Amino acid sequence: MSLSDSVELQALWRDQPVVLFFLRRFGCQVCRWMASEISKLEPDLRASGVALVGVGPEEFGLKEFVEGGFLKGSIYVDEQKKSYKDLGFKRYTALSVVPAALGKKVRDAASKANAEGIKGNFSGDLLQSGGMLVVSKGGEKVLLHFIQDSPGDHVPLEDIAKVLDISSKAKAGQMPVCNDSVCTR
């Protein structure tokens, strides 16, 4: 679905609190891993009446993302990237994306994704950053507004549960420790 055609962003939190995960790309390996991590919270979110929603900046890779079952929530596409712009999710430049993509956070997350058998591709808009928005029911309060600085940045599961004041037994996947090209657990 397209946010610009089908749903106003505000409608997503009108009747319930919502966790909105803004992906960089549906084909991004690290984004797929992050979606699978966030999905560990889905049973606790649902039990607490909180919606889990993923938003991507283009339809490219959506079918494969959905078929892979990476996110256990509703998925929307914002082809115009209006919500990305409104929320301050930056676009990398061709020069800034390379060091960001090769940084330790991205290498660590990619290593974890590989360990869990999550693959990705380099198709689509490589320059869009993402983040997360957690909003209370009715939009009365923004509980969390997280903007990625690096493609490997993400919000820990316990931080999401904490801002929503819910308990969760979900355990984050262990991030590997990488020193240059060698990763250990």
TrEMBL record:
Keywords: Cytoplasm, Fatty acid biosynthesis, Fatty acid metabolism, Lipid biosynthesis, Lipid metabolism, NADP, Oxidoreductase, Prostaglandin biosynthesis, Prostaglandin metabolism. GO terms for biological process: prostaglandin biosynthetic process. The keyword Cytoplasm applies. SUPFAM superfamilies: Thioredoxin-like. Its EC number is 1.11.1.20. It is an enzyme of class 1 (oxidoreductase). GO terms for cellular component: cytosol. CDD domains: PRX_like2. Belongs to the peroxiredoxin-like PRXL2 family. Prostamide/prostaglandin F synthase subfamily. This is Prostamide/prostaglandin F synthase. It comes from Gasterosteus aculeatus aculeatus. The lineage of its organism: Eukaryota, Metazoa, Chordata, Craniata, Vertebrata.
